[in-house]
Each structure stands twice: as C-alpha cells, then as structure tokens.
C-alpha cells in the first residue's frame, strides 16, 4: 500500500477510534453520573447517535485539513520568523514552552471563535456545534469538519509560525483535546476562584446557553483570561437550563454536513435575486444572514459602533 493509502487507512474509523471512545466512556460517564451538572439526564439523550457518527467519520477530513494548515503555518514561520526567536523558544524547558504556547494558542482560538460567531458563512458551519440541546462529553464531537479545521488550525498557527518544539506542541494538543471534552461534559466541578483561571464545564456551558444572556460569551477554549480582557466573560454561579439555537438544523449527520453549504447556496441565490424558497434564518441572524447577537463595540446588526 502506498504512503498516502496507508495514511488514509490509518485515519479510517477503526480500533484506535474505538479505544479512545472506550477511554472517554470509562472516564466521563462515571463522572457525569456521580457529579452531574444537571441531574436526571438520559444516557442515550437526543442526538447521541449523530454525535457518534461525527466522532467516527469526521476525524478523516479534520486530520487532513489540520495537517494542511500546519504545513502552511510552518512554511509561513520559515519565511517570517527570525531564527533567533525559534532558537530561543526551543531552548526553553518544556514546562515553560507549554504554558506560553497555551496562552498564545488560546488567544488565536478566542479570535477565530469570535469570528465564527460574527461572520455569517462561518456561523453556518459553527451553528452545527451549537445545535446540541443537551451537553455531555460526546457533544464535544458534534462539530462540522470545516469548523473544526478552522478552529483548531487557527489555534495552532502561532505554535508552528514561531517554531515551538514538537514535544511542547504535542503536549498542548493533548491538553487542549482533553479539556475540550471536559468543558462539554455534564460534570459539576467545584472550582471556586480556579474557574477564572481555567475553563470549566460551567464556563463553556454558558457559551451554549439558549438564553440570550449567554449569547456571544465565553469564547476562550482554555483560559477565561481572554474573555475577561475582551469583556465577554460570563459566569454566574448557576448553570444554564436550556441549550441550543433557534436555527433549523437537522439531527441527521449528513444533513448537518450539508447545512452550511445549503445556507451558502441560498445566500448566493438571494444575492442573484433568484426567487426561491430558502430556510428561514433563525432569530440570531437578519434576512441578510448577519448575526444579531450583540458583541461589545458591535451593534445588533453586526456593524461597528461609532465608539470603535
Ligand atoms: Zn461557539
Ligand atoms: Zn462547545
């Protein structure tokens, strides 16, 4: 089998994915039963089979896409980053490289994530992730492959452009992966003041809240620091009661993959003034598809306010 063939074969859903699934089940299911953030939730909740399909099958395009973004970032780094900067970075111990890398990666994650909520065609991809009505560890995998490639790829840009050591980058990716599953889990973590330092389930659950008060809050993936700095942090003591969005998104895996492209086609047709029925945009977007969520410094129709 050729190198490309064996690479694709390794990416296919198989024993490795099944082993990770078993590991996540063994770790998070007891936690969700013992210390649930919300009690009385069913194990086989609405949409679990769709999320399982995301878990197994979306890994293939995601791996290919992120690999391409890593290659582009490394190439950019070789062109613009002074050699002295990279030498200094890789000469640092891994215990120093990892926290520096997490801070930088999460800043890029924050900025990319905020754009996903603001730019209509990016939101159409990201809306799939926000369509879960119930959150648990498996809901972390309900994400459109394009959305995941852009989100994860963006966070990795500074690491590969600056030239962190491979071992530091692997450690950061592993930490990020586990934390992204944890913050979606239905687990109550009594974190006290620590919740302002490290993202916890209650931090990210509010990002998924169906109530308007939680919209466009808590964009960071790992460090609430960036939401505190940019004025988008929101963490009351209670957990949100409802999750999801009002955009009409099917619970079918293939329809979720097609959702942003159907919205894009509808938008293009509308621009061409072709009269044909399109799905009604949810209350989060106006008829032009712009976000109606209100961000600091940005008015309700997505235009910059005069103060900025
Ligand atoms: Zn989001
Ligand atoms: Zn999420």
Structural commentary:
With 308 residues, this protein is mainly α. The protein has one domain (3-230). Helix content is 56%, strand content 0%. It has twelve helices and no strands. It has helices at residues 3-11, 15-34, 48-57, 59-80, 83-90, 94-118, 120-130, 145-162, 166-184, 201-207, 225-230, 253-271. Helix 6 crosses helix 8 and helix 6 crosses helix 9 (166-184). The longest helix is centred in the middle third of the chain and has 25 residues, at 94-118. 35% of the residues are buried. The site of one zinc ion has 5 residues, from helix 6 and helix 7.
Q: Return the structural class.
A: mainly alpha
Q: Tell me the distance between the termini.
A: 57 Å
- The helix fraction, in percent, is 55-70%
Largest sheet: none
Number of strand segments: 0
Secondary-structure element series: HHHHHHHHHHHH
Small molecules bound = zinc ion
Envelope shape? globular
What percentage of amino acids are in beta strands? Answer: under 5%
User: Low-confidence stretches at least 5 residues in length (pLDDT < 50)?
Assistant: 289-308
Q: Kindly provide the radius of gyration, computed on alpha-carbon positions and rounded to a whole number of angstroms.
A: 20 Å
Q: DSSP helix count?
A: 12
Query: What number is the mean pLDDT?
Result: 85
Number of domains: 1
